[in-house]
Design brief:
The protein is of the alpha+beta class and about 475 residues long. It contains twelve helices and 14 strands. Strand 13 and strand 14 form a beta hairpin. The chain is globular.
Length: about 475
């Protein structure tokens, strides 16, 4: 796989150099337009400086900015245990050096993206709508696709390519808009005839290049994005050995009518499906950051003999009706068969169940607490509720948020902290007995609310604040 990553990097670097050349030429022509003698080199310096500043910001804070702009919030396994299990499975399958951080976006529109500087420091963000609409196989396919972007070293390159594209667009717009305030031809008064003609020629070239360079760079950026989406689909099928999971997920995401409010032009290319496309299934490849969805689904469903990269390339050629290498040569040299597996047991959820699960998940992401009254009513307490108890709207009974108790299980014994009376020392477990299988909230002995989701099936959970383990009894 390292040979595949190296080949991917070489091709990426070549395209990166082309975009860099566009940036340098743009700076040169704009500088020469203002000062024919030596101004071109000053323009190169200014363009390079702008690009470096944006790149530094992108490298050190790009992932945090993208996650914040997208409305993504970090979550712990208690919010959605299945998601963490799937991410951990794909992390192991892909051989990543560290577990990606997990984020959930408070949106009913199904989608997902990955970001980060390197595999050791990366994140996967999914929407609440994705979690409620997809079964486990489909969720695994989406997570595998995003993990593949991390594994193939796509996310860092795409971030820098996007910054370079943004630099080209920014410099072009500044130059073109400055012409409105330049006073027309007054800049050439007082110059010799030859000098004025030379400046005019450079100005015409600069205007033309300022218009064409962003278009050319955008087409290069889109070409890079589309090819990497094919490779991520191929790698995802290889990781899961069940291409139908990703194909079915793409189909559901494409058919979703909801709009992802947090998406914009800067982040749209990162998602597994462009959330800004109105007609996602039939969008022209020339103007899209992603290949046509129908084509991606057809290629995945054509993988009937195996899920290797060679199998994907053959399926790609069959669906496209022509040979076009989307898999680097090093990947095609690996003829190791990757057998397909069967579908996992996963029942489809009804529309009503999806709606209820979506509502509860979005409340959990937003910090709501979940209580079950003795009368059976599920009470959802908003995060800004400061009282210690809340009255049940049905029976009027006062309900306090339950707290984990000091462990008294066999082999553990009653533990009393010497530092804080009534609390277990750091690392000593406490216990909590579940009241049902739905969402529940209890307070850790440190006072922090801990949520248990319907997917949680573990025997213990760790408090994100104090690190103390709480044993969960059914």
């Amino acid at each position: 796989m390292w040979e595949l990553i190296s080949a991917n990097r070489r091709k990426s670097f070549f395209l990166f150099v082309i975009m860099g050349s566009c940036l340098i030429l743009l700076g040169y022509f704009i500088g020469a337009a203002y000062a024919p003698r030596g101004g071109g080199f000053i323009g190169i310096g200014i363009a390079f400086f702008i690009w470096m500043i944006l790149s530094v910001i992108s490298y050190f804070s790009g992932d945090s900015i993208l996650l914040a702009v997208s409305g993504a919030r970090p979550v712990t396994p208690d919010v959605h245990q299945q998601l963490f299990n799937v991410v951990d499975e794909m992390k192991i399958a892909a051989g990543l050096p560290a577990m990606p951080k997990v984020y959930i976006i408070d949106s009913p529109a199904p989608n997902a993206f990955a970001t980060g500087r390197k595999p050791e420091n990366c994140a996967i963000a999914v929407t609440a709508g994705l979690l409620t609409r997809l079964n486990r196989d489909e969720l695994q396919g989406v997570v595998a696709h995003e993990t593949s972007h991390i594994m193939n070293r796509d996310i860092q390159f795409m971030t820098f390519a996007g910054v370079m594209l943004g630099s080209i667009v920014l410099i072009s717009q500044i130059f073109v808009r400055s012409l409105w305030f330049s006073g027309g031809g007054s800049r050439y008064r007082g110059r010799s005839k030859d000098s004025g003609q030379g400046a005019a020629i450079f100005m015409i070239i600069a205007i033309a290049f300022a218009i064409l360079a962003p278009i050319f760079a955008q087409l290069l950026y889109l070409a890079i994005s589309r090819r990497r989406e094919y490779l991520a689909d191929a790698s995802a099928a290889r990781l899961t050995r069940y291409p139908e999971g990703l194909a079915s997920a793409l189909e559901k995401i494409a058919k979703s009518p909801e709009k992802l409010e947090g998406a914009n032009d800067a982040t749209a290319g990162l998602y597994i499906i462009n959330p800004l496309q109105k007609n996602r299934a039939d969008l022209s490849a020339w103007t899209s950051t992603h290949p046509p969805i129908a084509e991606r689904i057809a290629i995945l469903r054509a993988l009937s003999q195996g899920a290797s990269l060679v199998d994907y390339q053959n399926a790609f050629n069959k669906i496209k009706g022509k040979k076009d290498a989307v898999i680097p040569d090093s990947g095609l040299k690996d003829a190791t068969p990757v057998p397909l597996r069967g579908a996992g047991a996963a029942a489809e959820k009804g529309a009503g169940a999806q709606k209820r699960e979506l509502g509860d998940l979005m409340r959990a992401v937003n910090g709501f607490l979940f209580l079950t009254c003795a009368c059976g009513l599920k009470i959802k307490v908003p995060p800004d509720f400061k009282k210690e108890s809340i009255a049940c709207p049905r029976c009027g009974r006062e309900n306090k948020i339950p707290s984990a108790e000091l462990a008294t299980l066999a082999g553990v014994g009653a533990i009393i902290s010497k530092d804080i009376p009534g609390m277990a020392p750091s690392g000593a477990p406490s216990t909590y007995k579940r009241k049902g299988t739905g969402w529940e909230t209890f307070n850790c002995t440190c006072g922090r609310p801990v949520q248990l989701s319907p997917q949680f099936q573990g025997k213990e959970i760790t408090c994100p604040s104090c690190g103390r383990k709480t044993l969960i009894q059914s």
